[in-house]
Amino acid sequence: MRPTFADRGSLSVDFDAIRISLASPEKILSW
Questions:
Q1: 14 vs 22: CA distance, rounded Å
Q2: Rounded to an integer, what distance in angstroms lies between the CA atom of residue 27 and that of residue 21?
Q3: Which of 16, 12, 19 is nearest to 3 (CA)?
Q4: pLDDT, tens digit, 9 for 90 and up, residues 1-31
Q5: What are residue 3's phi and psi, to 5 degrees?
Q6: What is the DSSP string of 3-30?
Q7: Whole-structure pTM value
Q8: Are the CB atoms for 16 and 23 separated by under 8 Å?
């Protein structure tokens, strides 16, 4: 199964969120 452009876009957003979470875990805890 090839991921659609929409799926790839959502995955990229998830990776960005993970990067932010790893970069600043304190901010996520403050959420």
A1: 12
A2: 8
A3: 12
A4: 566 656 666 767 788 888 877 777 677 666 5
A5: -65, 135
A6: PPHHHHHHHHHHHHHHHHHHH-HHHHHH
A7: 0.38
A8: no
